[in-house]
Design a protein that fits this description.
Shape: elongated
Radius of gyration: 16 Å
Order of helices and strands: HHH
Number of strands: 0
Helix content: 55-70%
Strand content: under 5%
Number of helices: 3
Distance between the termini: 13 Å
Length: 72
Protein backbone atom coordinates (compact mmCIF):
# COMPACT_ATOMS: atom_id res chain seq x y z
CA UNK A 1 0.00 0.00 0.00
CA UNK A 2 3.02 2.30 0.27
CA UNK A 3 3.79 1.74 -3.40
CA UNK A 4 0.44 2.24 -5.10
CA UNK A 5 -2.92 3.77 -4.21
CA UNK A 6 -5.94 1.50 -4.60
CA UNK A 7 -8.22 2.39 -7.52
CA UNK A 8 -5.76 5.09 -8.62
CA UNK A 9 -2.60 3.20 -9.65
CA UNK A 10 -3.72 -0.40 -9.08
CA UNK A 11 -6.77 -2.33 -7.95
CA UNK A 12 -6.35 -4.53 -4.88
CA UNK A 13 -8.53 -7.49 -3.98
CA UNK A 14 -8.76 -9.91 -1.03
CA UNK A 15 -10.29 -13.05 -2.51
CA UNK A 16 -10.30 -14.93 -5.78
CA UNK A 17 -14.02 -14.19 -6.08
CA UNK A 18 -13.42 -10.47 -5.66
CA UNK A 19 -10.64 -10.65 -8.25
CA UNK A 20 -12.99 -12.21 -10.79
CA UNK A 21 -15.72 -9.66 -10.05
CA UNK A 22 -13.28 -6.79 -10.48
CA UNK A 23 -11.87 -8.30 -13.69
CA UNK A 24 -15.37 -8.62 -15.14
CA UNK A 25 -16.22 -5.05 -14.15
CA UNK A 26 -13.04 -3.52 -15.54
CA UNK A 27 -13.31 -5.53 -18.77
CA UNK A 28 -16.58 -3.74 -19.44
CA UNK A 29 -15.33 -0.30 -18.31
CA UNK A 30 -12.50 0.51 -20.69
CA UNK A 31 -11.97 4.14 -19.69
CA UNK A 32 -11.62 3.40 -15.97
CA UNK A 33 -9.35 0.41 -16.65
CA UNK A 34 -7.07 2.40 -18.95
CA UNK A 35 -6.94 5.36 -16.56
CA UNK A 36 -5.71 3.13 -13.70
CA UNK A 37 -3.28 1.26 -15.96
CA UNK A 38 -1.76 4.51 -17.26
CA UNK A 39 -1.49 6.03 -13.78
CA UNK A 40 0.20 2.88 -12.45
CA UNK A 41 2.66 2.74 -15.33
CA UNK A 42 3.48 6.43 -14.99
CA UNK A 43 4.06 6.04 -11.24
CA UNK A 44 6.34 3.04 -11.79
CA UNK A 45 8.39 4.81 -14.44
CA UNK A 46 8.74 7.90 -12.26
CA UNK A 47 9.37 6.45 -8.78
CA UNK A 48 10.74 2.97 -9.43
CA UNK A 49 13.14 3.47 -12.31
CA UNK A 50 16.67 2.11 -12.13
CA UNK A 51 18.22 5.45 -11.10
CA UNK A 52 15.80 5.90 -8.20
CA UNK A 53 16.26 2.31 -7.00
CA UNK A 54 20.06 2.52 -7.32
CA UNK A 55 20.15 5.80 -5.38
CA UNK A 56 17.99 4.31 -2.62
CA UNK A 57 20.35 1.33 -2.38
CA UNK A 58 23.43 3.61 -2.21
CA UNK A 59 21.73 5.70 0.50
CA UNK A 60 20.99 2.60 2.55
CA UNK A 61 24.55 1.31 2.19
CA UNK A 62 26.21 4.66 2.91
CA UNK A 63 23.80 6.21 5.44
CA UNK A 64 21.82 3.26 6.73
CA UNK A 65 18.54 4.77 5.47
CA UNK A 66 16.86 6.26 2.44
CA UNK A 67 14.46 9.14 2.04
CA UNK A 68 12.26 7.03 -0.24
CA UNK A 69 9.03 6.61 1.76
CA UNK A 70 8.21 3.30 0.08
CA UNK A 71 11.46 1.71 1.32
CA UNK A 72 11.17 2.59 5.00
Amino acid sequence: ELLMEDKKHVVYFDTAEECMELADWYLSHDIERQKIANAGMERCHHYFNMCTIAQAMVDIIEKGYTCQSWMQ
